[in-house]
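Hi C.,

You asked whether I'd gotten around to modeling the 422-residue construct. I have! Everything is below, sequence then structure, no commentary in between.
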Amino acid sequence: MRVVIATQAERTHFLGLVPLAWALRAAGHEVVVAGQPELAPTVATAGLPFAPVGRDHHFGRITKRFAAGRLPLLDFGEEDEEKLTWPHLLEGYRQVVPYWWRMVNDPMADDLVGLCRSWRPDLVVWEPTTFAGAVAARACGAAHVRFLWSLDLFARMRGLFLERMREQPAASQEDPLGEWLTGLAGRYGVDFDEELVCGQATLDQVPPGLRIPVSARVPVRYLGMRFVPYNGRAVVPEWLREPVERPRLCLTLGTSATDRFGGYTLPLGAVVEALADVDAEVVATVPADRRRGLESPPPNVRLVDYVPLHALAAASTATINHGGPGSVLTSMAYGLPQALMADPRLFDTPLLARRVAGAGAGVALGAEQADPEALRGEALRVLGDPDLRRHAARLREAMLAQPAPAAMVARLERHAAERRTA
């Protein structure tokens, strides 16, 4: 069959799709990744065919405004439903739809629909903010599935929004997402329904025990799939292939903090100094241009510009990370206890950190707690607490119990045969 993988130009969103794309190709299917031109080098590095569609979006500018506090977007990670009132949700949707979802989808929609109508895929796989993928699939008669790279906060918030909206008088009901998608789909002769928001099915790499509940008002059908780490093209350094002589602590604060928000939430130098007397080799992944003040790191700290996270995790005892789904799921895949210093500027990381901590496999530090000295205490805990290691091993087993990407191919073949209409 023919498969289009539709994703807006966001590198971290695409990386999680690569193992599935290669599983489909290895099974003999034709695969094309469709995204804005900016994504071309990343896709090429993964060795996958790429079709540039539309023009590059400018969401990066908006995230910088968001980080500076000038654009308070909806907090998708809020767990207290009493705070998620109708006015709060409505105002949040009024901002997130035009300043995020419309901004990344509108520039690619025409070309994506054109590609699907000319190439005639049997299946479209789309990451959860690329709604144009669902529209294009329906416009050409293909089956489609949504692919999650983190907790399904989108479907959860959509369900709450629909519940709150239906409690309002008819004259007060407003649906910015539905209105925008109705107009977008209508340009191609497609009717709007909630399937364009949540997919005909949803591929979920988060272990079932960590998933968050979703309202029955949204038609979500989850297909669990094993997370397979992929970090892009990389060379495993010689030092990482040598036997480990003492505990190793992996310190990674992700790329989004610097790429999208201009810096880390904590002074990195103070964090490194706080770990100076920890009885472990601390491997800190820090880009060369972010090492000001780190010219003379403590003897137990190894600074590296980049190392493939899956290779580092496989040779580590525990990790400190920023709560990003790629880092969290990679650490989970290797059974590592995690000290999660969630970056509040990334909407899913605080809740993901709390879910891991709630499962007993890590400790979550809120923004108000994440000072260097507190982080040192939690580093000692994740290195030495046997209960954390035991629960982390259980989460790893739960991940391994999910079907691997190669095993999902047959299910996607059946789905495409059952749901495509042309």
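If it helps when you're writing up: The CA atoms of residues 207 and 399 lie 6 Å apart.

Thanks,
B.
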